[in-house]
C-alpha cells in the first residue's frame, strides 16, 4: 500500500468499472442538465442504486464463486408481503415482523444452498425452482390469508427512521445501509481470509476444497446472504411505501446481474471486486434513471439504456485488458 | 362368477362414462387472463370462480389460463390461446391486449367454430375475431373521465405514466386522459417507462420524481396501475409540490390515500363484473343461444373519490372490488 501512485490506482480491477461510471455520469450530466447532478436529482439514482446494490453485492459474491441466485426476484415481493401481512394485516409489533421476515429470507437461502450442494443441479436451475415456488406460495398465502394481493402497512416512527424514510427530503435511509454493507463486504472479500477462499472457489472449486477451504459451508452462507439481503430490501420498500404487493421484484433478477457484470465480475466466476460491483450498480442506476432528466423521446428509453450499458461494459473490459498488460513506466537502464 | 362380474363392471364403467359424457352440449370454456400476481387479476379470478359455479351447475367446465408474467406478453397470450384450442374448448373468454399477436390466433380459433367472448380490453378488434360481445370499460372513455376529473380539480399539466409501453389498453387510457384533460383546458405529457423498472416501485417512484423535478409545471399525475400510484404518491411527497394524483385500479393503499386525502381519485372498471359476466354469458351463448342486444356492455368507469370511499371499502372487504 506504500506506493499509492496513479499507475497503481488505475491498475486496480475496479478502475475500469469506475471509468464506465464516469462516462455515464458525464453523458447524463451533459444531456440531463443541472437537475441530474443537483442534490435532489442525485438522490434519484442513489436511491435506486442502494436498493439494487444491497442485493447486487451478495449476487456478485455468488457469481465470483461460480453460482447464481435468481430466486431473489421472488424474495423481494415475498418478504414485502411477509412483513405486510405480519405487521400490517395481523398488526404484530414491527420488530417481530422484521425478524420473522429476515428469518424467512435466511430459510429460503438455506434451502437454496442445501439443494445446490445435495443435488448437484446448477444453481441457476435450483433457484429458478425456488423462484417460482416462492412466487406461488406468496400468492397463495396472501390470497388465503388476506383475500387480496396487496396489503398496506403503516410502520411506527422508529422503524421508518431506520428502514424506510427520506433524509434531506429525498435520500432514502437505505443508502446508509448500502454504504455500510459495502464497507463490510469490502473487508470480507479483500481483507479477510474468506475473501481469498471465495475467489479460489470460483477459480477452481475442486482445488479449493482440496486446499482445505470449507467450500460447502461457504456456498450455503452465500445463498443465505443473498436471500436475506433480498428480504431486507423487500421489507425496507414496504415500510417506505406503506404498501406491499405480490408482484414487484422480478426486475431485480436481471438488474442485479447486469450491475454485477458491469462492475467487472466475470460471468465464469473467479474474478471480481466489491468496489467494482458498487460502481457497476451506480452505473446501472444512473443509466436507468438518467433518461428521465433528459429531453430524449421517452419511447427511446430502453434503447438508450441498452446502448449506454453496452458502452460501459466495453469500456470496462478494454480498460481491464490494458491495465493487466500495463507494465509501468520503463525503468531507466543503468549501465 | 368372475366373468359376469367383469361384464357388470364394464357395464357400470360405460354407464359412468355415459353419465360423464351426457351433458356433451354444455359449454367447456377457457378464460384467459394476465398473471395472477396482479391484484387486478385476482378480482378477475374471483369473477371467474363465481361464474364457474354457475357453469358447472349446468354441466359445463371452465379452464382458467394465465400468463406467468408480462415479459413476453404477446407470444405468451398466443400460446395460451393455442393451448385452449388444443384442449378442444367450445369457447374462449379473453381480453385482447397485444392485438398484432392475438388477433391472428383468435381468428384461427374462431374459424374452427370456437366462440370468442371479449372482456377487459380490445373492444375495437371485436369484429376481426368474430367476438360475441365485450364486457369491460372502454379504456378511452375511462381515461377521458380521469383526465377530465383531474383537470376540473384544477390540474393544468398532467403526466400520464405508462408502465408497459405499447400495450394497447394502456396507450388508449392515456389517449383518453389526453382527450378528457384537453377538453377541460389542461395539457398532458405521456411518460412510458421501460421494462427494466416495471413493477419496481423504487425505480418508478424515482423516475416520476425526476420528471417532477425536471418540469416544475407538472401538477397532476395519472398512473395506469395501483402499484405505480404508490410510487407516484411518494414521488409527489418528495417533490414537495401539491400535485394531484389519480390512477386506474383499486388497492388497499390507494384507498387509504383517498381516505387520508393524499390522493384525489381512482378509476375502477369493476373487473369482477367483467370476468363474471364474460364467462357466464359465453356459456349461456353456447348452451342456450342467449345473446344480449346491448353491445358493448360497459362495466366502468366508476370513479372512487372522497365522496364514495366508504362504500368502496366495503366492496374491498368482500374481495370483489
TrEMBL record, chain A:
It is found in: Cell membrane. Its main location: membrane. CDD domains: TM_PBP1_transp_AraH_like. It comes from Donghicola tyrosinivorans. The keyword Disulfide bond does not apply. It holds the Pfam family BPD_transp_2. GO terms for molecular function: transmembrane transporter activity. It comes from the Bacteria. The lineage of its organism: Bacteria, Pseudomonadati, Pseudomonadota, Alphaproteobacteria, Rhodobacterales. Keywords: Cell inner membrane, Cell membrane, Membrane, Sugar transport, Transmembrane, Transmembrane helix, Transport. Part of the binding-protein-dependent transport system for D-xylose. Probably responsible for the translocation of the substrate across the membrane. This is Xylose transport system permease protein XylH. The chain crosses the membrane at residues 15-36, 42-65, 96-117, 124-146, 166-188, 218-240, 246-267, 300-319. It is a multi-pass membrane protein. GO terms for cellular component: plasma membrane.
From TrEMBL, chain B:
InterPro entries: Bact_Solute-Bind_Prot2, Peripla_BP_I, SBP_2_dom. It comes from the Bacteria. Keywords: Signal, Sugar transport, Transport. One of its GO terms (molecular function) is carbohydrate binding. GO terms for cellular component: outer membrane-bounded periplasmic space. It is found in: Periplasm. Residues 29-287 form the Periplasmic binding protein domain. Residues 1-26 form the signal peptide. Belongs to the bacterial solute-binding protein 2 family. This is Simple sugar transport system substrate-binding protein. It comes from Donghicola tyrosinivorans.
Amino acid at each position: 500500500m506504500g506506493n499509492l501512485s496513479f499507475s497503481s490506482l488505475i491498475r486496480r480491477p475496479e478502475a475500469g468499472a469506475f471509468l464506465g461510471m464516469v462516462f455515464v455520469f458525464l453523458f447524463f450530466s451533459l444531456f440531463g442538465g443541472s437537475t441530474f447532478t443537483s442534490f435532489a436529482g442525485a438522490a434519484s439514482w442513489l436511491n435506486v442504486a442502494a436498493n439494487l446494490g444491497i442485493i447486487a453485492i451478495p449476487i456478485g459474491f455468488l457469481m465470483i464463486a461460480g453460482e447464481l441466485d435468481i430466486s431473489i426476484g421472488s424474495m423481494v415481493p415475498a418478504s414485502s408481503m411477509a412483513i405486510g401481512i405480519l405487521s400490517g394485516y395481523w398488526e404484530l409489533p414491527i420488530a417481530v415482523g422484521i425478524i420473522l421476515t429476515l428469518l424467512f429470507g435466511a430459510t429460503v437461502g438455506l434451502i437454496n444452498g442445501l439443494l445446490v450442494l445435495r443435488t448437484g443441479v446448477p444453481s441457476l436451475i435450483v433457484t429458478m425452482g425456488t423462484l417460482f415456488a416462492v412466487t406461488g406460495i406468496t400468492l397463495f398465502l396472501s390470497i388465503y390469508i388476506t383475500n387480496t394481493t396487496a396489503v398496506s402497512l403503516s410502520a411506527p416512527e422508529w422503524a421508518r427512521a431506520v428502514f424506510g424514510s427520506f433524509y434531506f427530503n429525498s435520500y432514502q435511509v437505505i443508502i446508509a445501509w448500502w454504504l455500510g454493507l459495502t464497507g463490510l463486504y469490502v473487508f470480507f472479500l479483500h481483507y479477510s481470509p474468506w475473501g481469498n477462499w471465495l475467489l479460489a472457489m470460483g477459480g477452481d472449486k475442486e482445488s479449493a476444497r482440496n486446499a482445505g477451504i470449507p467450500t460447502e459451508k461457504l456456498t450455503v452462507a452465500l445463498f443465505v446472504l443473498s436471500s436475506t439481503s433480498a428480504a431486507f430490501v423487500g421489507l425496507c420498500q414496504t415500510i417506505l411505501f406503506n404498501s406491499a404487493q405480490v408482484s414487484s421484484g422480478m426486475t431485480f433478477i436481471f438488474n442485479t446481474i447486469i450491475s454485477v457484470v458491469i462492475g467487472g465480475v466475470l460471468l465464469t466466476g473467479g474474478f471480481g471486486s466489491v468496489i467494482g460491483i458498487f460502481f457497476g450498480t451506480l452505473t446501472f442506476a444512473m443509466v436507468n434513471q438518467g433518461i428521465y432528466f433528459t429531453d430524449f423521446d421517452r419511447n427511446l428509453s430502453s434503447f438508450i439504456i441498452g446502448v449506454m450499458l453496452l458502452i460501459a461494459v466495453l469500456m470496462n473490459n478494454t480498460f481491464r485488458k490494458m491495465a493487466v498488460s500495463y507494465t509501468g513506466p520503463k525503468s531507466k537502464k543503468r549501465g | 362368477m368372475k366373468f359376469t362380474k367383469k361384464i357388470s363392471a364394464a357395464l357400470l364403467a360405460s354407464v359412468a362414462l355415459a353419465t360423464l359424457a351426457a351433458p356433451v352440449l354444455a359449454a367447456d370454456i377457457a378464460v384467459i387472463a394476465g398473471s395472477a400476481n396482479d391484484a387486478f387479476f385476482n378480482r378477475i379470478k374471483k369473477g371467474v370462480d363465481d361464474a364457474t359455479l354457475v357453469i358447472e351447475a349446468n354441466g359445463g367446465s371452465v379452464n382458467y389460463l394465465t400468463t406467468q408474467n408480462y415479459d413476453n406478453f404477446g407470444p405468451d397470450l398466443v400460446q395460451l390461446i393455442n393451448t385452449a384450442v388444443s384442449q378442444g374448448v367450445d369457447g374462449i373468454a379473453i381480453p385482447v391486449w397485444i392485438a398484432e399477436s392475438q388477433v391472428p390466433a383468435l381468428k384461427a380459433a374462431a374459424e374452427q367454430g370456437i366462440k370468442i367472448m371479449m372482456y377487459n380490453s380490445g373492444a375495437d378488434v371485436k369484429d376481426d375475431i368474430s367476438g360475441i360481445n365485450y364486457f369491460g370499460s372502454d379504456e378511452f372513455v375511462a381515461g377521458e373521465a380521469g383526465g377530465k376529473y383531474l383537470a376540473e380539480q384544477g390540474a393544468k399539466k398532467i403526466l400520464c405514466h405508462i408502465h408497459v409501453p405499447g400495450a394497447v389498453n394502456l396507450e388508449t387510457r392515456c389517449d383518453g386522459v389526453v382527450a378528457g384533460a384537453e377538453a377541460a383546458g389542461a395539457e398532458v405529457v405521456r411518460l412510458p417507462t421501460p421494462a427494466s423498472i416495471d413493477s419496481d416501485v423504487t425505480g418508478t417512484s424515482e423516475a416520476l420524481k425526476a420528471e417532477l423535478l425536471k418540469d416544475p409545471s407538472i401538477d397532476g399525475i395519472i398512473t395506469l396501475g395501483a402499484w405505480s400510484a404508490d410510487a407516484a404518491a411518494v414521488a409527489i411527497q418528495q417533490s414537495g409540490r401539491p400535485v394531484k394524483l389519480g390512477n386506474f385500479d383499486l388497492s388497499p393503499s390507494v384507498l387509504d390515500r383517498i381516505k387520508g386525502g393524499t390522493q384525489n381519485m381512482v378509476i375502477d372498471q369493476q373487473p369482477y363484473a367483467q370476468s363474471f359476466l364474460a364467462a357466464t354469458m359465453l356459456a349461456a351463448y353456447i348452451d342456450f343461444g342467449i345473446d344480449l342486444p346491448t353491445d358493448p356492455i360497459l362495466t366502468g368507469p366508476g370513479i372512487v373519490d372522497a365522496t364514495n370511499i366508504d362504500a368502496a371499502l366495503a366492496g374491498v372487504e368482500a374481495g370483489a372490488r
